[in-house]
Write a structure and sequence with these properties.
Strand content: under 5%
Structural class: mainly alpha
Order of helices and strands: HHHH
């Protein structure tokens, strides 16, 4: 293994990021399709289970592609991504627990955690954006 294989390159980062983004989009589209199918009662139990299975497989593929991206990128980019992940995780935990308490109280409908996930995704994206601006 030569020293160049240990260094991040912009081309490799873009390729790895495109791969992770493609898996993420496939996962999101499958999730939305299965959720819509369930809500509209278009799917039988067997089709629902198959859809959840495919959605889970796409989620794992997304995680593996993102992990690959993190392992091959440079330390600064990894720091920015990990900081953004930590912030998004914190928003998810604090927001999720707060929502759960409000649901127990009856102030919000139970089980509508879509907004918590959306907040986590947006927080991660903004965290990466601000991290890049901070270190550029």
């Amino acid at each position: 293994m030569n020293d160049n294989s240990l260094c991040s390159s912009p081309q490799r980062d873009r390729r790895n990021q495109r791969r992770a983004t493609a898996w993420s989009l496939a996962w999101a589209l499958c999730f939305v399709a299965v959720m819509l199918g369930i809500k509209k009662e278009w799917l039988s139990l067997g089709m629902t289970l198959a859809g959840v299975g495919v959605t889970s497989i796409l989620g794992v593929a997304t995680l593996l592609a993102y992990r690959h991206f993190l392992l091959e990128t440079d330390e600064l980019r990894r720091k920015i991504e990990v900081d953004a992940l930590a912030l998004a995780f914190g928003v998810g935990i604090v927001g999720g627990m707060s929502y759960w308490l409000l649901a127990v109280r009856g102030a919000v409908p139970p089980g509508d955690f879509f907004y918590i996930f959306l907040a986590m995704f947006l927080t991660h994206g903004l965290g990466v954006l601000f991290g890049r601006r901070r270190y550029s």
